[in-house]
Design a protein that fits this description.
Blueprint: E1 16-24, H1 35-40, H2 45-54, E2 57-61, E3 81-86, H3 89-117, E4 127-130, E5 133-134, H4 142-148, E6 151-152, E7 165-166, E8 172-173
Antiparallel strand pairs: 1-3, 1-4, 1-5, 2-3, 4-6, 7-8
Helix pairs in contact: 2-3
């Protein structure tokens, strides 16, 4: 997966509090295709894998997320999205790649599911925005914010980061390759 991430030197690193981004899921959470559950993983396995490897925090928000906020205890009315925040650039890059890999696999599963159900097969694309936060405020200065807050397309060259873990048997495998992780 190639992500067009902002480079560490594009941010005012000494003042940076954390690196954050938001991925649009692009699929509504339906009873028959529980995308929120597929993102979270069995007993939180996907979220936990990202945390353990990167120390990045993930938050699933929006319609169908199951997260109720505010005094009204309602879901955010926005489309389903996954937010990432990480204090280190290296952890952030790896978390971005892991989430992109997961969402691309879920998009493939959804297209296949739609075809089997006789539904129109959607043209899903990976979409995300970066929002680095500095120590002085909730976001970096306006000119940097305008540049880094734009939607980025995932196909431009980016630093290569291998996303793999070693299983107890010693075999190397992506944490998202096991179809059992995607329990419907």
């Amino acid at each position: 997966v190639h992500l067009n991430l902002a480079k560490e030197h594009e941010f005012p690193s000494p003042a940076l509090r954390k690196y954050t981004a938001r991925f649009e899921v692009g699929i509504e959470n339906e009873r028959e295709f529980t995308v929120a559950r597929r993102i979270i993983g069995n007993k939180g396995s996907h979220m936990r894998a990202v945390w353990e490897m990167t120390k990045a925090k993930l938050r699933l928000r929006g319609r169908g997320s199951g997260y109720y906020e505010g005094s009204q205890q309602t879901e955010c009315p926005e489309p389903l999205h996954l937010c990432i925040s990480c204090r280190t650039y290296d952890g952030y890059v790896l978390a971005m790649r892991m989430v992109a890999d997961l969402l691309l696999r879920i998009h493939d599963d959804y297209r296949e599911w739609c075809a089997i159900q006789g539904r129109p097969v959607p043209n899903l694309q990976l979409r995300y925005r970066e929002h680095p936060l500095d120590r002085r405020s909730s976001n970096i200065n306006a000119s940097k914010k305008a540049d880094n807050n734009r939607e980025r397309q995932p196909h431009a060259p980016a630093p290569s980061v291998s996303v793999s873990v070693t299983s107890p048997s010693g075999a190397s495998a992506s944490p998202w390759c096991n179809p059992d992780h995607f329990g419907g």
